[in-house]
Automatic annotation (TrEMBL):
Name this protein carries in UniProt: UvrD-helicase domain-containing protein
Source organism (scientific name): Metallumcola ferriviriculae
NCBIfam families reported for this sequence: HelD_BACSU
Domain UvrD-like helicase ATP-binding: 131-562
Biased composition (Acidic residues): 357-373
Region (Disordered): 357-376
GO biological process: recombinational repair
Assigned GO CC terms: cytosol
Superkingdom in the source lineage: Bacteria
Binding site for ATP: G152, A153, A154, G155, S156, G157, K158, T159
Pfam families registered for this protein in UniProt: UvrD-helicase (PF00580), UvrD_C_2 (PF13538)
Keyword annotations: ATP-binding, Helicase, Hydrolase, Nucleotide-binding
Amino acid sequence: MLDVSKENLSKVIHAKDKPYFSRIDFQETGSNESKKYYIGKLSLLKENNEPLIIDWRAPIASTYYDGRLGEVSYQTDTGTVSGELSLKRQFTIEEGKLLDFFDVDITTNDEFLQSHLGAHADNRLKDIVSTIQAEQNKIIRADLEQPLIVQGAAGSGKTTIALHRIAYLIYTYEENFVPENFMIIAPNSLFLNYISGVLPELGVERVQQTTFTKFCRRLLGEKYKLLSPEEKLGFLLKTDADEAERVQVKRLSKFKGSMQFKVVIDKYLNKIEKDMLPNTDFLLEEYLIVSREEVKRLFLVENGHLPLHRRLDQLKQNLSVKLKNRKEELHDQLHNEYQPRINAIRKRMAEVKEEFEEQSELMAEEQSEEQSEEGERVLSEQLEKLRLQLVALMDERDGKLASIDKTAKTVVRKYLARFEKKDALHYYKQLLTKKELLLSLAGDYLSEDHIHYILDTAKGTAKKSTFEIEDLPALLYLKARVEGFAEELTINNVVIDEAQDFSIFQFFVLRYILSTTNFTILGDLSQGIYSYRGVDDWQEVQDQVFPDGCSYLMLRQSYRTTIEIMNLANRVIEAGTQGRAVLAEPVVRHGQKPTIQRYDAEDDLVNELAVKITELKRENYSSIALIVKTMDECERIKNLLTEQGFDNITLLTGDDESYAGGLVLVPAYLAKGLEFDAVVVAALNERFENNDFNAKLLYVAMTRAMHRLDVYYLAGTMPLLEESGVI
Ligand SMILES: Nc1ncnc2c1ncn2[C@@H]1O[C@H](COP(=O)(O)OP(=O)(O)OP(=O)(O)O)[C@@H](O)[C@H]1O
């Protein structure tokens, strides 16, 4: 209790500077009194237990986010409550001082939202409890009966909402979930750091936050190396990469993330389990304990739900129990077999003695001493012979019993040793390196050409236990089905951000190993720069991963960027995807028009770039990003700018845990999910071709900007903008 009180006290102290952000006046239908409710980040009761401040996650607070003034309703545990909302007032409070307030009228609450969006970005995402919009509120409070997929435009608040949803679920279902059971999966450590402040700010600690590769490392152990996914992306993005190879790489990446590959692994597992079975009965010496048919049934059917290695443990128990019972039977059987013969000898001994005694009595007087001595000698000889027979018989029996006991001690172990027990990694390596095996299992889905490509590349990778991210779903699935995991997985609620980069098999395997459908999946197909491995269509995820039902919601409104920037980005994605992309609708916030500058000489471009950066710094933007296509290009520009006197540019690589704001240089694929006050996109060497892939990449880069966007390119590097008519 003391701990809980301490935690509560520290939360209250933290909230003191800004205890609430809005007030609603609500009169429940049937009541004649309108009540005032102050809404804040945490609830506070008066001494008489009347609420002083209610938590933003409380059921009634939903009317603040959802409802216009007038007739409204909200859901509680026990049903729907309706009533009249007569006031929605928003407060700006800083450090305990009321700075301003707005009353939200019937039409809009944009003014308050505007003042929040206009603020400058630091290097961390923030909470938005006071300005959550109705369409976002719907996602945050979506019920848990079905998994939820959210397709949301760039800047629509997906990441922010994901975090608010976790806070909401923990508050609302506190009896079902503890924070430790939640897991957020995000693309990289930099991103995790970027979002790490929001949950504590919302009063939630201890939620697991990881990336898919880290989660795999935790479950699969250290026995493999992983190639950086950026290396492959880098190859695919390279202007001068071999086109035939590019096609192969894409085709195989897609295949490894598909449910077809899962079917291949299932077939493989069937083969593995059948091959594991020995072709012999389980015997104890010459006695049958369990027939091979029964062993097969135990292994494949009765324990079929367990991972193979656990089935062996279970089979060991099954066989041991059967062995113990059979051993007892055999003991009884041998006793029963020998006992009549033993009894017969014993009886014969007694008879011999009796006969001798009778005769001795009859002839007692007639016999001489010599004769009677002779009689006794014959008797003891006879008895000794019988005793020896008896001992031999008992020894024979005991020998057999001892031999059975001795053999029984090792027979289970020896039998189980006939099952070939290999780990998941071994099996996966075999699959990628053995031609016959791969052909027999995947021949229906892959051409011989593709199979040869896999075998060729596996020589330098899989054979040496080096894999790529596309291999992880299969490895995880094999591990789950072959070995099982060392730790018990207690995660029962999963939030996946930037989910457009996930493959179907990846979603499937998470669902499979965690045995839950409590998934909130958020992504934007227009930002699918890893689309060679990621999903193309959310419907596939609904159909193949959650066939029992899945909710799907869309967010079109974008809050990050100005209208001017969003319009330009929309034209890029529209042109590159031939109009297939769902366009973002910016909230009404104007800013400076983005510029696009073309240069014929590299020197001129770099000089102007330097001027632009200096200007942005002077305008006091706290976060400025220079975004380019590849890591090579980053390094090149860094050198050129260093020559211009910029020696404090931070180059972001995938491994960064954090960055301190200021000026950063980053390849577009790593900037995904982040945001900056000002973005400068530059292209010196790497061309943005006029295709879907490049359009997505440029779209990601452009939509990172909150207030300013400028594009600098060298003649010839922007077919995407020039050929598609964007400029
Ligand atoms: N209701 C809101 N009120 C105030 N700010 C908001 C609101 N919704 C989103 N934002 C702001 O919009 C920006 C974008 O949000 P976020 O990064 O969560 O979007 P996203 O959909 O994940 O973007 P992307 O897919 O481009 O990475 C953030 O600065 C966030 O604070």
